Amino acid sequence: MTISEKIFSKASGKAVKAGEFVMADIDRAMTHDITGPLAVEGFYEIMRDKEEKKVWDPSKIVIVFDHQVPADSLNAAANHIMLRKFAREQGIINYDVYEGVCHQVMPEKGHVMPGDLIVGSDSHTCAYGALGAFSTGIGSTDMAAVFASGKLWFKVPETIKFEVNGKFQKHVYSKDMILHLIGDVGVEGARYKAAEYAGSTVREMPISERMTVSNMAIEMGGKAGIIEADSITEKYLQERIPDFELDPYWKSDEDAVYSEVKNYDVSKLEPQVACPHNVDNVKPVTEVEGTKLDQIFVGSCTNGRFEDIEVVAKMMGDEPVAKDVRLLIIPASRTEYMKVLKAGYIEQFMEAGAIVESPCCGPCMGGSFGLLGNGEVGLATSNRNFKGREGSPQSFVYLSSPATAAASALTGEITDPRKV
Ligand SMILES: CC(C)[C@H](C(=O)O)[C@@H](O)C(=O)O
Ligand code: SF4
């Protein structure tokens, strides 16, 4: 069995294989300030004839406020009021207004375990595969059903295995690897499949780098982006759950059946950039070097962790942000923000002319602030560059690693980090 087949077998109480339909028990459900209100409405609709309108298990629901925080409109404020009221009424203690981006908060606060089946009403819920869970994005109405019953039906997905080997060149990171994979297979390359990332390159990655890779599985259509848990995962989890012990069962068997196995050697991989307006429009940085930029955004659930921001700080040193480009840095959570603060990087960034905002999704989906105007060009460490993603439909978004973003902040144009 693959990891995914094992997880669905546990969740449905019988041995199942890819292609079968199952009714599965959900271990954890996450919702946030944009999709949550609709899920709550749907939940009360489902429960309308019931005397007791209670969720199946309040301890298994996590509500995160991240897309529009602090509230940027009356509409956002109303959504926050509704979700807070729902959490209190239902006894949901895991909700927080200013903790950070949901996909950072979930693993960081110990809500993700290897072997878990997790759903979230956000497409990048696949990020928790970095810890060996099967986690996937669902819609608000499906979430309403989960709130009511703790169950959801699935077709057990086939698995496509990405076997990645080789050591990265200096200034090449897991973001470059995942952009390269997406460029290779395309935005539908893993549609309704679990992407399983394996090989020595993945094994050597710290959790922060693995999260970037799992997070972007959806950008190739993947249902999940799983990395088998190992001693690195165990250490990360023990920092949160002291008595956590790794269960070696949660890995794909040696004779597991994959729909496809794809092999990559990343030892010669150049830094990669996804060009407007699709995530699979990926080019080596050398082909787009010199593209003038108006704004650089370092943050998001893809690359907004301390490790990402540290790369930027170290690469920029005492140098200022180039004239005419705006550098916006948003740590993905309160915890990550505190680490950046304690390391002295906020002061460094402010002196360099950058601006550091409090944890939230920020301009990632053009929602609350930091929008690109007509004709403007942005470079972001986030995960999507669709037309209008960061503001105006007449703007252009490039995606890269934090290292490429830092090198570009020093020059004001897309720059190969290997030159810095
Ligand atoms: C707002 C939400 C529905 C959306 C998603 O599901 O992905 C957002 O987080 C995004 O990244 O586009
Ligand atoms: S940071 Fe961006 S990709 Fe991640 S959840 Fe927020 S809007 Fe979606």
Automatic annotation (TrEMBL):
Binds 1 [4Fe-4S] cluster per subunit. Pfam families: Aconitase. Keywords: 4Fe-4S, Amino-acid biosynthesis, Branched-chain amino acid biosynthesis, Iron, Iron-sulfur, Leucine biosynthesis, Lyase, Metal-binding. The keyword 4Fe-4S applies. Transmembrane segments: none annotated. One of its GO terms (molecular function) is 4 iron, 4 sulfur cluster binding. It catalyses: (2R,3S)-3-isopropylmalate = (2S)-2-isopropylmalate. GO terms for biological process: L-leucine biosynthetic process. Belongs to the aconitase/IPM isomerase family. LeuC type 2 subfamily. NCBIfam families: hacA_fam, IPMI_arch, PRK00402.1. This is 3-isopropylmalate dehydratase large subunit. The gene is leuC.
